[in-house]
Design a protein that fits this description.
This protein is mainly α. Helices cover 60% and strands 2% of the residues. It has a two-stranded antiparallel ribbon. Strands 3-4 form a two-stranded parallel ribbon.
């Protein structure tokens, strides 16, 4: 029955019409209106039939009979339905939201805590059956807010009921706090309710309280409470600072104190408290002068979340204060990656905005060469510094590459890095790199250790790898031919021609193999 109710939309109408009689018989024999789940099933199945123009004479009676008080409550609570209509039946979604909110607010106004408790039990039951928990949380927020507006004591009793049941529904008040933390007396009542017991997500309730507390009620008392909240956190919570910045007028070092607390807790207690992704961008100037703390916090957050500071604007702020942080950061990646970092596709091209970053990048290259030998497969991690560069940054990066070659042309491990960068991120530089190398050395034994065309790759379709390799080597030879070095390049040219010949033989063998596979 359950699987039948989730038939794919392209199901045959004729087949549904054929099945509907049996479906009605099963409903009448085996389902009961006293069960909410049965009521919901019947109502949704008949709705699905009607949407597909499938009808039965028993539908009106079934729709009338299969309703009970829990189902009626469900229709009001569920955000996707307005009375007997579903959201998709409305043309204006914003208008639908207004109507739905009005229905929720008018349907669940209580006069005492017992009524609130009865509603809560039904709400918990229905929420456990839903897949869209966010909508149910929004509904509850509106219900509590409306009751606080009508009768503040009754509204607060709903908050108490939730806490008494250990917040099993993972609710965090937002709308009710936004609308009822404007007066000191009400704020004190709500704060007392929160602080009376421990319960699931209590720190998030406290953070929400600080966020929505009216500006006129901010005080040193709540600054101390905020710090205690952070110290008490043991789960992987994320802290947003856009509203907390209001407390800076009371304690100007607040964000620095919070940052230090988070770093210590994550380090010593094994928690994973997270800063919102814009923290080192929007609030860098409020973090004080302890750059070591800031650097430690950044690396810590980066390890917790791969998408933290995705555009690197926060790191850029740190690098402008301490360019050597780039080396510390890259080294931290190796502490986490057992098999190296070449598989990480980072976006670190912003480093070229930092004055004097070249000297640090030299150390980074040396670190990577030492930690992770490059075998020519895929893109080297150092491409992270050279992708999608703007014109002024590209000029600076190109000069770095040229200078790097002049110093390290005899070191094939280091040359392989810059050649890979030229092949993947700065293709317009490849010819210049090769020609520069030839002016610096004509040693064939160094040349043949460099992955000028990479070391294989991933190919799709019916391609001939030998032909591809031969073409690559011909292109390399055509660049070498442009060099003015002269006869000293004969050994290198001979080596390239040998590679072309080998690749062509491989291509012929591949064609023969494919031909023979036909028979």
């Amino acid at each position: 029955m359950e699987s039948y109710s989730h038939i794919h939309p392209d199901v045959s109408k004729e087949l549904m019409q054929y099945d509907v009689t049996m479906l009605v018989e099963i409903i009448q024999k085996h389902l009961t209106p006293s069960s909410f789940e049965h009521c919901k099933y019947v109502q949704e199945q008949i709705s699905w039939c009607k949407r597909n123009s499938v009808f039965h004479s028993s539908f009106p009676e079934l729709l009338k009979n299969f309703r009970n008080s829990t189902y009626d409550t469900f229709l009001k609570i569920d955000w996707d339905r307005l009375r007997d209509k579903e959201m998709y039946e409305f043309d204006d979604y914003r208008e639908y939201e207004k109507l739905k909110e009005a229905e929720i607010r008018s349907s669940f106004v209580f006069t005492n805590k017992d009524q609130a408790l009865e509603f809560y039990k039904t709400f918990v039951y229905l929420k456990k059956l839903t897949k869209n928990e966010w909508n149910y949380t929004t509904t509850l927020d509106h219900v509590i807010d409306e009751n606080c507006s009508k009768n503040f004591k009754v509204g607060c009793s709903l908050l108490q009921v939730i806490i008494e049941h250990n917040n099993e529904i993972n609710y965090v008040p937002r709308i009710v706090f936004r609308n009822h933390l404007k007066e000191e007396q009400k704020a004190e009542v709500i704060w007392k309710i929160i602080e009376q017991n421990n319960f699931i997500h209590k720190p998030l309730w406290e953070l929400s309280f600080y966020d929505y507390l009216d500006d006129s009620l901010l005080s040193s008392k709540y600054v101390h409470s905020l710090l205690n909240t952070v110290r008490s956190m043991n789960d992987s919570y994320t802290i947003h600072f856009d509203r907390l910045k209001r407390f800076l007028m009371i304690e100007q070092n607040l964000f620095q104190i919070i940052l230090k607390t988070i770093v210590q807790k994550n380090e010593k207690d094994g928690t994973k408290l997270q800063l919102w992704m814009d923290f080192f961008i929007e609030y860098f100037d409020q973090l004080g002068n302890d750059i070591e703390l800031i650097k430690k916090a950044y690396i810590q957050q980066d390890k917790i979340s791969n998408h933290f500071d995705y555009e690197g604007k926060g790191m850029l702020n740190i690098l402008k204060e301490d360019p050597d942080f780039l080396l510390e950061y890259i080294n931290s990646l190796y502490n986490e990656k057992q098999f190296g970092i070449s598989g990480d596709r980072k976006h670190l091209e912003f480093i070229w905005q930092v004055e004097g970053i070249e000297n640090v990048l030299l150390k980074v290259f040396d670190l990577i060469v030492e930690k992770e030998p490059y075998l020519g497969f895929g893109e080297h991690f150092c491409n992270s510094f050279f992708r999608n560069l703007k014109s002024d940054q590209k000029e600076k990066a190109s000069q770095f590459i040229i200078n790097y070659i002049k110093t390290n042309y005899a070191n094939s491990n280091k040359m392989n890095i810059v050649v890979d960068i030229a092949r993947h991120s700065m293709r317009e530089l490849f010819d210049d790199i090769l020609l520069l190398f030839l002016t610096l050395t004509q040693d064939k034994n160094i040349f043949d250790k460099i992955w000028w065309r990479g070391n294989g790759g991933t190919y799709s379709g019916n391609v001939n790898i030998g032909d591809i390799e031969a073409t690559d080597w011909r292109n390399i030879l055509s660049i070498v031919e442009k060099s003015n070095v002269g006869i000293n390049l004969i050994p290198i040219k001979r080596y390239i021609n040998e590679q072309i010949e080998y690749s062509l033989k491989r291509a012929d063998w591949e064609r023969q193999r494919r031909f023979l596979e036909r028979y």
